[in-house]
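Ligand: acetoacetyl-coenzyme A. Inputs:
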Amino acid sequence: MEHLLTEEQLDVKRAVREFAEGEIRSSVAARDESGEFPADIMRRLGELGFMGVNTPENLGGTGMDTVCYAIVIEELSRVDPAVGVIASVNNSLICYPLEKFANAEQREKWLRPLAAGKLLGAFALTEPESGSDAASLKTTAVRDGDAYVLNGTKAFITNGANAQVHLVFARTDKTVEKSKGISAFLVPAGAQGLRVGTLEKKMGIRSSDCVEVNLQDVRVPAANRLGKEGEGFKIAMLSLDSGRIGIAAQAVGLSQGALEEAVKYSKQRVQFNRPICEFQAIQFKLADMEMLTQAARLLVYAAARKKDAGGRYNHEAAMAKLFASDVVTKVTLEAVQIHGGAGYLMDYPVERMLRDAKVTEIYEGTSEIQRFIIARNVLSA
Ligand code: CAA
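Predicted complex:
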């Protein structure tokens, strides 16, 4: 696949791989067990320019293309998809909508430090009763003079416990169609009335935090509204188009990591007087794992290129996310199978990888939602 990349993209791939091997790998298993947030790693990623990869340089980012961004998330996730998703949320769901919708003042105050990794952002869309049906959210924002007062509960918020700013979607108008009455707000984590719940106990990507965020009479200046009143749902959907490329890249990276573990183990493990990689039963599994991972990677790069070309890319992003998340679940399952009994033990990374994989089929739009988006585009073409 390297032959498809430019010199800059290859340099990024090498740099992130070196960082992930040198500064992430040694703590992955311990953080999976403890659930500890990788604060130092995220700080270093910010210094290296990987928390605002796509954000233009004049806005405090690194100014690279979306293929470079996908490569960053892929290479981080090959070693630790928990680090991958923390970076993906900040890049795609925070810096990207700010780049598109923030005014000059908001760019200086929020985007610049977020893109430089000096602040971390969280994307607060989902609620206990609105997941796939995001437009039915109930959190309200009521205008009061030069401020808005927010009330409601957000659920499953990645980065929620560690972010300094939350991009909160709230209903500002109940009289219009549900998707038209939503607005977006930049809410500092320290705002009075904002309370972060206890860490959710997750199946995988355990060192990426996930929490409920409760907003009780949280007063934010009107200057913290991102975009126009009523534009919030569109901002959320555009952010998720970008985010789905990140999650697809996360899935590809993890799939690559699991494949490499399976190859390594199959060369070491001897049964019937031969390394098991000499058996066709194992070889055929490895062949499928390689083919699927490469195919997923191509869809991710194609979606990234479509984004850079301008215009709508929700179709390509949905296909990349749907396919890559399906692939990573299959590949990590096969990686465990190749390890046999050893794969079922926490002593080998493939056990964690299988747990880490599943969420890619769920967050930033379930596989069912991606199919809905793709089918709707096909039918309306
Ligand atoms: N770009 C721009 N505008 C868009 C858009 C897009 N991709 N998708 C929809 N819109 C616009 C539509 O054009 C429409 O506007 P008009 O009425 O002016 O035409 C408006 O938004 C409403 O769109 P829909 O009718 O399609 O809305 P819907 O209620 O049917 O919902 C959906 C569509 C695709 C199901 C959407 O609700 C969805 O994506 N759901 C999944 C939510 C999700 O992904 N949540 C993830 C949470 S964040 C997360 O997971 C982060 C993490 O933890 C890592």
